[in-house]
């Protein structure tokens, strides 16, 4: 069921506890490598043992049945699923696309409200294509990874202006034609909205498959990811691909969770080799084929990090150590004036249209050098405000309020927050610095990041 990439199925069946010399098997004469000159020795192919695959068609059928039956009974009631069941009409385009894009790196509970507001505001592709980026950013504010919203809108414009308003319907075409649609999103849209029998691999699927088949090599490595895509494509149910993919993801989100999986309630526990290993203290027996050893198998845990019995099934998956987030300090100043209705108003300015938080609004801010002393920070910020406002700003008039820490995926950001009450107005050049005064209510309705809300 796992289609070999090379077409040489026999090589894949090799048990990985075979002696190293035997693991280097020449390419089958029936599928010669066209890149090699005649008679040249074939390169070594990494063994991919049966223990890590689904090689029994009956087991695959049983797994599909068990998983789908559980999904039918236990799936969560999510707004995009309600639409799939109901009369979706013109909304078919957005049901999976919008929800899948929003769900990247974001929890379901957070997404639901954003999804509902989005679909209410832009129920059709045409409506989204006509929206301004400012409107998209306003609705997306607080959801993070802002380029997702921007790309979604760009893709909608492309569908309307270049594809005659018709969404591509296969994973290949979706990925090729739409900006911001990667392999996972393409597979999810094609299988769930259009019934294409294609698999998906996201974080939840990685966890479930690695546990089902004891894959303990670095799960972010290209070799393992390729194996998992092959497995997902082989496993997906041919008659209910969308439901099967959602069921696998749902299992990872609700049962096969990262830290304390509920193996006793798991609908596929009888197919799970990690659980079997936990229960019996050794690798699951695989008919006809030897168990893996540790060390020379490309899918087993590396020899330096063997199975740890105290972790049980959570031995899988394994990830390479995360790169440490970069530390950054930014001085930010909340300029405040009395508004015409007597309440306070704050000055916000727009960030550049590319890079981190592109196009979002923020309080005037200035990245700081790493080793700057606190007094110098204040002076540097005062100089910056002075140049920007075209009027003198004394460093001592800036009141230090405190520090706000916000973690972006790759940046540990500290905002050093100052405030500056103003008596009169400030005249700014709108061409170089798009800016505006807002009340607190308007601030929260604007396209501002969660970090800036913390600053306020
Ligand atoms: Fe995950 Fe446990 Fe189910 Fe295996 S038995 S798939 S580890 S929940």
Q: Quickly count the domains.
A: 2
**Residue ranges: pLDDT <50 for 5 or more in a row?**
1-45, 85-90, 285-291
Alpha carbon gyration radius:
27 Å
Largest β sheet strand count, sense and barrel closure? 7 strands, mixed
Shape: globular
Reported CATH architecture of the largest domain: Orthogonal Bundle
**Chain-averaged pLDDT:** 83
Helix and strand sequence: HHHHHHHHHHHHHHHEEEEHEEEHH
The CATH superfamily of the largest domain is Hypothetical protein, domain 2
Number of strands: 7
Q: How many DSSP helices?
A: 18
CATH topology of the largest domain: Endonuclease III, domain 1
**Percent helix among the residues?**
25-40%
**Structural class of the secondary structure composition?**
alpha+beta
Which cofactor or ligand species appear? iron/sulfur cluster
Which CATH class of the largest domain is shown?
Mainly Alpha
How much strand content do the residues show?
5-15%
N-to-C span: 56 Å
